[in-house]
Automatic annotation (TrEMBL):
General function of this protein: Mitochondrial transporter that mediates uptake of thiamine pyrophosphate (ThPP) into mitochondria.
Localisation: Mitochondrion inner membrane
InterPro entries: MCP, MCP_dom_sf, MCP_transmembrane
Organism: Parascedosporium putredinis
Protein known as: Mitochondrial thiamine pyrophosphate carrier 1
Amino acid sequence: MTEHLKDKGSKLQTIIAGSTAGLVSRFVVAPLDVIKIRLQLQSHSLDIVRDEGFTALWKGNVPAEIMYMVYSAAQFTAYRATAEAIRPYLGDNRTNPRIEAQIAWIAGTVAGLAGTTMSYPLDLLRTRFAAQGNDRVYKSFFRAFGEIYRDEGLQGFFRGIVPTLLNAGPGMGIYFLTYEALRPLTFIAKTTVFPLDIVRKRMQVQGPTRGKYIHKNIPEYTSTMGAIRTILATEGIRGLYRGLFVTLLKHAPSSGVTLWVYESTLRNLIKLDNAAERNI
């Protein structure tokens, strides 16, 4: 995030800009996201359009759109609030790259944890819908909520949250750090924590519906480390990086669209408010 993203705009403007950025970004990268999820769940065939139709590339788009809106709003709000809160303790010298890097890392980590926790049930639903073939496990977004709660309880909405938080916290810390200081190298954030993303996706489809998705042979995992050991034993190190290329491929447009839409929306909201104040 650039300096003006840390300091300008009201909380409401930040929430609106973040939600808009998430909404637009998700729609743009939805097809790549579906392909990535299928690869992470051990897909050996990517003939999604042939077998399921063109619209299959947007499977899970409703929960994903809501998730991205919630996540982005929480993320940008938490980032700015954390940066403002810790700056007095680390020093308010904005020309010091070391201090700015520390602020970016800490605020980015908090932002990642906040956004992930608030949007996680929607993330789980997004994964399960994307993993469905023509035989639908869930008939609708709202019925999915009811069936998961009925069959798995509240904890069912948080399957895989441990590797997700381990991924999201440091991952977003690296993301914002590299965005501030080393923008061309932001891909290292995705690559570093990618194995945890594999574990997250596979744990999200555990439970009573595990054998009903398009990939019937998803192993049963009970813990993060257990999942990593099983994947290494059965698939080798490459198993922990299934879908990495697609992830890196979608990272540039996703991040670029998110930040561009956020900056543009925030800038226009501030202009509208300033114009309204002048007319009073």
